[in-house]
Design brief:
The protein is α/β, with parallel strands linked by helices and 231 residues long. Helix content is 33%, strand content 15%.
Amino acid sequence: MRLIQDRPSPNHDAREEPVDILVLHYTGMQSAEAAIERLCDPASRVSAHYVVEEDGRIWRLVKEGRRAWHAGVSFWRGNETLNGRSIGIEIVNPGHEWGYRPFPSAQMAAVTELCQGILSRHAIPARNIVGHSDIAPDRKQDPGELFDWPGLAQSDIGLWPDFSAAPSIQASAERLRADLGRIGYPISGDLATVVTAFQRRYRPARVDGQGDGETVARAALLATLVDGAVG
């Protein structure tokens, strides 16, 4: 069992809902120290339950039984303002503004172990393990297209189907919007923004907001998988 160090943040309050969502973020700051300082600064009004450094060290800022302030304005599968029902993990990475880079293997191993522990304590379905960009596509890009979602799925954390089995489907904005909604994305706004978030997560080789045939096929396959999920 990996050591988790405590660095308490004052930025939290009481939960009023059971936890059923796990949100993964990147810090998007120039250093781990700067990110942790901000997450522990009462003036910032932001926090997370955990921070995972690039060398695999894990910091616990807020206890899981408390509501951390990490999701902001957010939506997933019909629910809004997700802080109350989620656990948030901040993963140290400079992000797209400061030199986005791959996540080291030691860091991903720590994230995997941390997520497995969280899933052992909370009934979080695989379809509710999301990135910040999934739940706030008009505002956020994290953890981004370099994050190893397939590797997490191999450890039963989140969804990554065999996309080679995706059906051949003619590109259709109407079909794509409907399937993205079935997966859980907010679809009332600009479709290209949501498509970009979906691609960042499930088609990282092409993040352009265009609903081409491959993107439509991947969304259709995932929507079918989500519809058949239990929980």
